[in-house]
Amino acid sequence: MKKRFILEGIECANCAAKMENAINKLDGVKEATVNFMTQKLVIEGEDEKMPIIVQEAEKIVKDIESHVVMKKA
Amino acid sequence: MKKRIWRIIIGAVVFAAAIIINIEWLQIAMFVISYVIVGGDVVKRAVRNIFKGQVFDENFLMSIATIGAFLIGEYPEGVAVMLFYQVGELFQSYAVGKSRKSIASLMDIRPDYANVKKGDELVRTDPDEVQIGDIIVIKAGEKIPLDGKVIEGYSMIDTSALTGESVPREVEVGSDILSGCININGVITAEVTKEFGESTVSKILDLVENASSKKSNSEQFITKFARYYTPVVVIIAALLAIIPPLIIEGATFSVWIYRALAFLVVSCPCALVVSIPLSFFGGIGGASRKGILVKGSNYLEALAETEIVVFDKTGTLTKGVFNVQEIHPEGVSKEELLELTAYVESYSNHPISLSLKRAYGKEIDNGRISDVEEISGHGVVATVDGRKVMAGNIKLMKMMNIPYFKGELIGTVVHVAVNKQYIGYITIADEVKPDSAQAIKELKAANIKQTVMLTGDNKSVGSKVGKELGLDKVYAELLPADKVEKLEELFLQKSKKGKIAFVGDGINDAPVLARADIGIAMGGLGSDAAIEAADVVIMTDEPSKIATAMRISKKTLKIANQNIVFAIGIKIIVLILSAFGLATMWAAIFADVGVTIIAVLNAFRALNVKNL
């Protein structure tokens, strides 16, 4: 399953890379990409683990850049 | 944003005042005040992030570097590092925001409403709710909301948002109009032919918004580099602060800590990490301004590495429209031959017949023609002005026992006889696009090693087009499956790093588009299959845009590489110099903020594709 999100207010490219890296390490994630310029996060993961993945991803985003809002695209 | 600017300005003023003042305690107090104004939030974030386990966070590094400078008594440096760091951050976010906005405005083609005609009234309707067959009215200056066909009115429309073409297009009754274009002057009434979700504007927005997030190699390299760079520099800084004072005689902690702090200032990888995606984003944005949609930065990168470009013929290098090429009369005038042929063929709707009627250009008078008989697979026999006219292929001439011209001819040939007397032939063929030859020439100039054409058409037509355009190789009489096979053969001929691009119109060649390293779809307007299968979509019908795309790609890559070499180079030089005590903290500030600003400005050049 593929889910797309908008990372509103993401300002630091290195943070985007850190988020991508951390989300990719989550259990059940096949591939996650953060596109800094388009502010998009795409997560491809196992269907049944998706709700947990999304929750964890949101936490990662908040931990790295607290003002970023993760919205469904 | 405004708040940040004011904080920097006020902080800078206090900082400047502190430098001038020479009452020591007051000076130190003012340095501390300006530091808090400028960098308070950085320190706050640093503390918070440590609790969240973000150790090598920029905020943390900057806080350590500046507080460390304060502790060893280097107050001005401490404040300056923070001040310039903030200036750099501000500049960065301004640049990123600006480039995001410029791309967004480029894609501002979504129509807000449609004027639907209901009886005598015009009702403003959400384009989503308009149905096929509804009648819509587009006034001057309005966006065309849905794809349709003009049923009333005449106007000029601006297609530049879709195609990058600046010359407006004329539309009249019967013309197809595409959503996303802007009606410039007249009022046009149109019948809707596609629902909003299927209309061109939706397809394109979908493509742009859901473009794959695949990253280029340079982007991947730089994020990987950043992941190791910061920890390594921080560890070296720590060792530098502790070890030399312990083992070197006479070395003091304050000197070596100063050097270590300079290291920390340079340890931030921001400049690099931001400037590379910014360059690619600029390149993709610039390309879309030219009517070239690139689905990801990896494809933009691959374009520059292309060695072989493979073309489909019909609809890609040629117009896909049949036209009369040669009129060769024997014993009659050209006009008479064309007139008779057009009359005989006037009852058919075959593309060949249509092209003859078009070439004739005058109204067909049905009273002059009678006894039309179509002989399937051969041609047509009819009586025109009382004379028995036969028009068709060689088989027809043979069947009627008429001697005909036997030389080699290219394209579809119509032989004509009157009362069993041969009067000549007309050839009809697909025409090459006006810029096809230019496209091949430009590709060669861009160092493409081979240009190849694949076609299902016969050999004589294929090799004629190949020669006319200067292609290196032509493979003719191919079935769609053969095209993939030929492409596989070509894969063996390229170098290891080289890429193969295939250019097609999406009709019958989706498998080839998918197999090539880069699938380029031409004339994306209207062909959904092409938009989906391709990696690059050229919105106009011009093959010369392929060379443009490659030039944009090369420029973007050059900028990205310049930034990589420049930023890493300066940082390493400053690191080495400061390890030996040859560079001050001021140099470190330049290596951080200065490099960021220069790299970002350089990245902005990628957006400018005017002269490409």
Automatic annotation (TrEMBL), chain A:
<dbReference type="Pfam" id="PF00403">
    <property type="entry name" value="HMA"/>
</dbReference>
<dbReference type="GO" id="GO:0016787">
    <property type="term" value="F:hydrolase activity"/>
</dbReference>
<dbReference type="GO" id="GO:0046872">
    <property type="term" value="F:metal ion binding"/>
</dbReference>
<dbReference type="InterPro" id="IPR006121">
    <property type="entry name" value="HMA_dom"/>
</dbReference>
<keyword id="KW-0378">Hydrolase</keyword>
<dbReference type="InterPro" id="IPR036163">
    <property type="entry name" value="HMA_dom_sf"/>
</dbReference>
<protein>
    <submittedName>
        <fullName>Cadmium, zinc and cobalt-transporting ATPase</fullName>
        <ecNumber>3.6.3.3</ecNumber>
        <ecNumber>3.6.3.5</ecNumber>
    </submittedName>
</protein>
<feature type="domain" description="HMA">
    <location>
        <begin position="1"/>
        <end position="69"/>
    </location>
</feature>
UniProtKB/TrEMBL annotation, chain B:
<keyword id="KW-0460">Magnesium</keyword>
<dbReference type="InterPro" id="IPR036412">
    <property type="entry name" value="HAD-like_sf"/>
</dbReference>
<dbReference type="GO" id="GO:0046872">
    <property type="term" value="F:metal ion binding"/>
</dbReference>
<dbReference type="InterPro" id="IPR023299">
    <property type="entry name" value="ATPase_P-typ_cyto_dom_N"/>
</dbReference>
<dbReference type="GO" id="GO:0008551">
    <property type="term" value="F:P-type cadmium transporter activity"/>
</dbReference>
<keyword id="KW-1278">Translocase</keyword>
<feature type="transmembrane region" description="Helical">
    <location>
        <begin position="560"/>
        <end position="580"/>
    </location>
</feature>
<dbReference type="InterPro" id="IPR018303">
    <property type="entry name" value="ATPase_P-typ_P_site"/>
</dbReference>
<dbReference type="InterPro" id="IPR023298">
    <property type="entry name" value="ATPase_P-typ_TM_dom_sf"/>
</dbReference>
<keyword id="KW-1133">Transmembrane helix</keyword>
<protein>
    <recommendedName>
        <fullName>Cd(2+)-exporting ATPase</fullName>
        <ecNumber>7.2.2.21</ecNumber>
    </recommendedName>
</protein>
<dbReference type="InterPro" id="IPR023214">
    <property type="entry name" value="HAD_sf"/>
</dbReference>
<dbReference type="InterPro" id="IPR008250">
    <property type="entry name" value="ATPase_P-typ_transduc_dom_A_sf"/>
</dbReference>
<dbReference type="InterPro" id="IPR027256">
    <property type="entry name" value="P-typ_ATPase_IB"/>
</dbReference>
<keyword id="KW-0472">Membrane</keyword>
<dbReference type="InterPro" id="IPR001757">
    <property type="entry name" value="P_typ_ATPase"/>
</dbReference>
<dbReference type="GO" id="GO:0016887">
    <property type="term" value="F:ATP hydrolysis activity"/>
</dbReference>
<feature type="transmembrane region" description="Helical">
    <location>
        <begin position="586"/>
        <end position="604"/>
    </location>
</feature>
<keyword id="KW-0547">Nucleotide-binding</keyword>
<dbReference type="Pfam" id="PF00702">
    <property type="entry name" value="Hydrolase"/>
</dbReference>
<keyword id="KW-1003">Cell membrane</keyword>
<feature type="transmembrane region" description="Helical">
    <location>
        <begin position="260"/>
        <end position="281"/>
    </location>
</feature>
